[in-house]
Amino acid sequence: MLKCTLRTGPPSNRAAFCLSARDRPACYPARRLDGCLPALALAGHCRPEPSRGGKMAGMGASKSRLSARISAITESATLAVDARAKAMKAAGRPVIGFGAGEPDFPTPGYIVEAAQRACAEPRFHKYSPTPGLPELREAIAAKTIRDSGLNVQASQVLVTNGGKQAVFEAFATLLDPGDEVLLPAPYWTTYPEVITLAGGVVVPVPTDETTGYLTTVADLEAHCTDRTKMLVFVSPSNPTGAVYPPDLVAEIGRWAAARGIWVVTDEIYEHLVYGQARFTSIPVAAPELADRCVVLNGVAKTYAMTGWRVGWMIGPQDVIKAAANLQSHATSNVCNVAQAAALAAVSGDLSAVARMRAAFDRRREQMTIMLNKIPGVICPLPEGAFYCFPSVKGVLGKQLAGHQIRTSAQLAEVVLEEAEVAVVPGEAFGAPGYFRLSAALADADLEVGLTRLGDLLTQAG
Ligand SMILES: Cc1ncc(COP(=O)(O)O)c(C=O)c1O
């Protein structure tokens, strides 16, 4: 049975968020959303009840088969939508997928060739240092100075299995049970799961389309308590595409430093900004933050290398050393061949990402225009990453294809079945009432998919 818990709300309501792994089973029935369909388990807030192991006789019968901590984790909603769209396609249905969070381009040839050469080198057939190949750590430090202006040593870089492992290790290394983490919402679906797993308590700081999905120091301050340890700062943002202006980045950084709050900043979309928007690294804008700041990054989005699994975290020496100790017991070194590919990527120029950026720029404009023509849909123009994040609140409460539409998760189900268009519902990002659509698909598919979406939603009444 599915119980759906809603995580957003004012800080006074925090006890109902059920985000601590410790608390979660007890407060599972916190709030139930009507209209939950089984597939909405992918919406992030609809969790299967933890397995209790049934009524078995004999020793161990009272013990759960799975730990409560791990049972509480749901599958990544974005990967689930993508997998479902691919399965429907394989079954012969002409699904157009807006779910994928990965560039629709192959990895540039010179990077692939570097990996081919590495395969033939015997030294890469062996274990290598856990924190990363020394030449890659050097190159990441140099690339960081080049791209964001942050001055770091190679010893402050830990190479990880994708940005995701860096996300996991950052929270695992810094959080103790009960530490509160300010997480501006809409947020990327992985952060709350990993913060919770590390024992932290997620404190969502809501934003919406009226402010371009930007938070402010006043909002952050209003959600702070004496247990606040950390702020998660992501610009450009997945899922909203929001890019913080430099002044606001500096203001938030200075506020965090003055408050003694750690900042974990995810810069994985640093090169994907459009128009007048500029990427600003928070420890560069507020240098006083440097000793309490961890930067996460990776090659996946910049070089179309999602499958290679190379990311990194940058931080103070003691944090990097502790995270490397953790990694030494979990996964050891990242695949050497993939590290050699990443070395070619970060030491090369940025011409490949410039070509992808031009395509994403064209598509985000086209998508925004088409989305805003649909009745009940409002979409700000995203300034970064490759996602549109429209509000679909204007469609909620209406009848569509024989359904009374109550939630964006339910609407996403109906859209998939009726229009054969896959989108990720906002519930997956702590923002019910929205959809996330990726611009990482061919222009022709984009046109057909949004036309189908528009034709369907126009029938809502
Ligand atoms: C904001 C953000 N951070 C980190 C990642 C992780 O990237 P990867 O693990 O593929 O390197 C993603 C992937 O979608 C992301 O959107």
Task: Walk me through this protein's architecture.
The chain is α/β, with parallel strands linked by helices and 461 residues long. The protein folds into three domains: 2-63, no CATH class; 77-105 and 352-457, Aspartate Aminotransferase, domain 1; 109-347, Aspartate Aminotransferase, domain 2 (3-Layer(aba) Sandwich), CATH 3.40.640.10. It is built from 14 helices and 16 strands. A seven-stranded mixed β-sheet has the order 4-10-9-8-7-5-6, with helices on both faces. It has a three-stranded antiparallel β-sheet with strand order 11-16-15. Strands 1-2 form a two-stranded antiparallel ribbon. The longest helix has 22 residues, at 351-372. It is globular. The protein binds pyridoxal-5'-phosphate (PLP). Pyridoxal-5'-phosphate binds at residues 101, 162-164, 167, 188, 234, 238, 266, 268, 298, 300, 306, 311.
What features would you highlight for this structure?
Aspartate Aminotransferase, domain 2, Aspartate Aminotransferase, domain 1, 13% strand, binds pyridoxal-5'-phosphate, globular, 461 residues, disordered N terminus
Name the CATH architecture of the largest domain.
3-Layer(aba) Sandwich
Radius of gyration: 22 Å
CATH superfamily of the largest domain: Type I PLP-dependent aspartate aminotransferase-like (Major domain)
CATH fold category name of the largest domain: Aspartate Aminotransferase, domain 2
- Quickly name the level 1 CATH class of the largest domain: Alpha Beta
Globally, the shape reads globular
Main pleated sheet: 7 strands, mixed
For the largest beta sheet, what order do the strands appear in spatially?
A: 4-10-9-8-7-5-6
Q: Compounds present?
A: pyridoxal-5'-phosphate
Strand content: 5-15%
The span between the termini is 31 Å
Average pLDDT = 88
Q: Please work out how many helical segments DSSP would assign.
A: 14
The residue fraction in helices comes out at: 25-40%
Q: Outline the low-pLDDT stretches.
A: 1-56
Instruction: Write down how many β-strands occur, each being a DSSP E stretch of 2 or more residues.
Output: 16
State the secondary-structure class.
alpha/beta
